[in-house]
Amino acid sequence: MERPVLIAGDDGVPVRVREELAGAGIPTVSICSSKNVRAARAAVAANAKVVIGDVATAATWEQAGIEHARSIGILGEDDLANLSAALQVADETTDLPIVVRLFATDLADGVEQMLAPRGTVLSEIEVSAPALIQAALSGNEGQRVTVGGRILEVAEVDKDDPGLVVALCDVEHPTEVLPTREQLGENHVLGLVDRAQVVQGARGALPASVAQRHHQRAPQRPHRPSNTERARAALSTIPGRAYVLVAIIAIVFTIGTSVFAISKHLDVVDSMYFTATTMATVGYGDVNLLEAPDWLKLFDIGLMAVSAVLLASVLAFVTDQLVSSRIDRALGRFPRPRKDHVIVCGLGKAGARVLQGLHDLGVPCIGVERNPEAVGISLARRLEIPVVFADGRAPGTLASLHIDHARAVMALTSDDLVNLECALSARKHNPTVRIVMRIFDPRLAERLDRGIELDVTRSVSALAAPSFSAALLGRTPAQPLSLSNVPLRVLETRIPQNWPHNGERIRDLHEHSELRVLALDGRWFPADDHQLQAGQAVSVVATKEACDALTAR
């Protein structure tokens, strides 16, 4: 009997890892703190063994069968508890591989050294964050995978593009994945593309129409802003009330100069000089109204009063700009971006890592969070990213964040329902904004996509599960491709002896399975009539189920 993998943890990550291992035919034992937690319920529903106990005690691990285990995954939510359990297991075993889940990545190297040479430390947030950020910035396109040392990218291209390695879906039907060439219509396709075209073989030159589109989309030389553009950018940073104040001062100055000049008591130049000194409250006495008519003196009194108010307003404005900005920064309040920004709802572990990634890329962003103690709040203050303490579902919250001009909205809380409500609210305010929603259940995500056409949904645990399961089995992880909520994988492995498709021709395999062979024994685009044999090195793109069948032993 094959030795089981022990998986400790209560939330979604151990659930997804157990499902990954079960799909590969690996028996598992789930260790949970209570029979009512998500991981325990899911394991019971799948008829998998469950042990209820404290992972910090040796008795719990003995009950789980640690002496017969293949490897151990300590995948709880609490870093300190995971570290304690890992040290406990390390004391009880000498050679079992240990995979530890840690959010604090700065501890990863130290913990791996403590558990060396059999310890591996992973963070589901670090694994999944690049996919979340990429989804916000470019949707399904732009995802990259490495196959045979070559980088392939998901892009929308013509079906005859010689750089196209494999079509993942028709643009008009994104949930119908891995179509055969006969099933492709006249529309463009989303496919894995070799931008360098080093694997194109003898497919011929790029069609003229496609080449023209590629040329139009080719990166241009960086645009150097002109002096006029720089001036406009500088003026755009000045608050609107400053323009109002300047306009009022100009109007009062014009009226004062005109009245003094029309009165014929002063000439035009003296009128301008006298008005300026009066408004600045620095009258020198060299020009005065001692001999002027009474009505002009009364006008000057009014001008003095108005000027005093204007001077106070100018001083208040300058003080506000100098002092309040420092106070705002000290309190964590920073200027909000007004266009081409990303709104991140939920600043937990995932939201914090996404904020960091967006900031590193120079993308303006703003956070929305209800809990002032959330993990991402201190990070946002350190990075000077504005945060609004509000509910993203509430009417007006997203509108106040200039969603009409936003680049994307990301709903990244740990509650699927809250994320869905935020996504629907964002869609209501701006039907064209890209929405990235975090959701636990990928099957629910697919149904939601079909029903309400959300742009991109991603599951943090589903994105990270292949890396965790591969580490537990000592294998190279499959590379996930999230495409319109249909999870695909890019996998490099050797064909096992018990694979049911051994002996089949590649053409026949492509016709009746959700698997496409990219390379065979290092050769790209193997012949369609080539028969697949056990032991051959194969690179494929396939659904999760097809990858599970290929890796099952």
Automatic annotation (TrEMBL):
The chain crosses the membrane at residues 242-262, 298-319. It is found in: Cell membrane. Residues 208-228 are annotated as: Disordered. Coiled coil: none annotated. Keywords: Membrane, Transmembrane, Transmembrane helix. PROSITE patterns: RCK_N (PS51201). InterPro entries: K_chnl_dom, NAD(P)-bd_dom_sf, RCK_N, Trk_Ktr_HKT_K-transport. One of its GO terms (cellular component) is plasma membrane. Residues 339-460 form the RCK N-terminal domain. SUPFAM superfamilies: NAD(P)-binding Rossmann-fold domains (SSF51735), Voltage-gated potassium channels (SSF81324). The keyword Lipid metabolism does not apply. The keyword Iron does not apply. Signal peptide: none annotated. Residues 212-224 have a biased composition (Basic residues). This is NAD-binding protein. The lineage of its organism: Bacteria, Bacillati, Actinomycetota, Thermoleophilia, Solirubrobacterales.
